[in-house]
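Let's sit down with a protein and look at its sequence and fold side by side. We need material for that, and I hope you will provide a protein of your own picking. Once you have written the record down, we can walk along the chain together.

***
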Amino acid sequence: MERILKKLLTGVQERILLAAIAIWTLSAASTGQTVLGDEHLAPDARHEKIGQLVTEFIQKSHYKQASVDDDLSSQVLDRYIKALDSNRMYLLESDVAAFEQYRYQLDDMVRSEPLDPVFEMFDVYRTRVRERLNFALLQLEAEPDFSVDEEYAFDREELPWATTTAELDEIWRKRVKNDALGLTLAEKDWEETQEILNKRYTRFLKRMDQAKSDDVFETFMNAFAHTLDPHSSYLSPRNSEEYRIQMSLSYFGIGASLQIEDDYVMVINIIPGGPAAIDGILQPKDKITAVAQGEDGELVDVIGWRLDDVVQMIRGPADTVVRLQIMSAGALPGAEEKIISVTRNQVKLEEQAAKSEIITLPRDGRDWSIGVIEVPSFYRDYRALSNGDKDYTSTTKDVKRLIGELEEQGIDGLIIDLRNNGGGHLTEATALSGLFIDNGPVVQLRNSTGRISRLDDPDPVPRVAYNGPLGVLVNRYSASASEIFAAAIQDYARGVIIGQQTFGKGTVQNLYSLDQYVRNPEDEGLGQLTLTIGKYYRVTGESTQHRGVDPDISLPSHIDVDVVGESVRDSALPWDTIRTTKFRAGDPLETTISTLTASHISRSKDDPDFQYLVEGIRDIEEVRARKTVALNIDKRRVEREESMARRLERENARRAALDLEPLASMEELEDTEAPDVQLDQAAGIVTDLAEMSAVATAPAQTARIVQ
């Protein structure tokens, strides 16, 4: 370590790569400055063994069958530095330059040489973190002057590294001022602000002092694995066990997957059937900044907390209330936050299951009935199935039953709503496809050796459950099994895909317990490795990986495709193609889709709800494009007031167009349920499709063979 520290001196931003996995430990906070810990972290013999095993797995089992060489080493170094200091708030340019000596050595280290340099880099980083946070604590001795006109660059990921300690001091002076300004705008006095920030920064320092060697090694090995692709990862023995426990408990609390992102607890996804999904208030990419118990408990600031400590605060007895202070997705630092109440409970199977409704659209003197089946996930009760229970729960069985119920009510068309469906059991995706297409292949799979297999509709009887006008509604959070189903419907020309480009997760992973690959019991306690071992392909031969499924008719969405999705991840496996497999498709829908698109565009121009959505997205995009915020309190107040006024004005313009009473305040707006514009638009499109169908017959019945 000395050979680096002699050149340097003077970061820890927590980058936890999997929900519910803590990289370093955090204790309860105290106030005041923290004495620097002197514990030197170093690799142990287990780490060398793990490195050798992981290297072997990567070269033999990963889909890419990558070579562990200098090129990979170079990429790993960049990713390791980014994992430590992604926003460039701690390390100096000279630190990063000193790390360059290891650029082409990490491959040799992980195979057979000591990993001491990996730990030396972390020690330098830890030193810088301590320096920065002690500087931040000193800044709290005097209240900042919020009347000065200056800007804070909160997004430094693409900015140059700071070259001097003085430059970092200025960055952190503004960081602390921005933190304080946000609390001041939340009506905290200076004494309260001092106390909150003192605790926050002290937590960061304590987190550094409690880092363990396994934590550093896990961070490095994840940088190594993620260089191959975003879904390959390594878990240390401790975190493997924590992950297992937390996954078994993940259906308690509020029903949301969380991770740490730039010191904030961020919502990754909402678990179907959980309390948060039922309430519909919490959204992916929202940040939780404070937590309170019950309706009257005091809000506790959780910025900078260890993830599992926050999870413990959020969890609690069933039917009790937890309050969360939320910074909405895409909001600027210091933006007004909202407080939501969620009643803790288990994820209820009946809430996770598919459910239906009917949308009635009056048109041309008659009412059109469009059935909607929402499919939150692809589920199957394998335990009940293995026990011989014929009434086992599954997506396909539930959807088939709901189709029958809807047809009894005389629907004119059907929408399968896969928005926010992150996937699930592959078997259910293929079986569900079989409800709408005759027998045939649904998806192809290629493994790391190039061997291609295919999965067919598992129902041997060539019959469909529904053959009327069909739309499939998707968004950017529709992933994996959802994409397989949507792609099959599109490739067979069985229905129209409506919405947004899907996530693009078209890879297959396998979990390896490394303990199973050592002979000596003393070598156990090596952790787990997840590796990508295959890719999914459509029946046309095109991969769903990276590109996802493009809708036939696009709808606007608040979800930013430049922020969410596989294509955003720089190590994502690429889109490619294999040979088309033989399948029997329906008549091409290009002409039908052109007609439907023209009708949709014409109708949406005069739709107040649609225009409301588009204008709201425009405002959000303007905020997302910003990289700096004002540190002048008057400017920030004006920005906040103007933003709220625009939202209220936009809502009241919509209400006026619909002959509804206007709202008087933001409080009323927050309590008002927003229209589901995408679903309403999809219902209009499927109604158009129903009108175009003289007889509701499945396109697949006049088939063309594709081979």
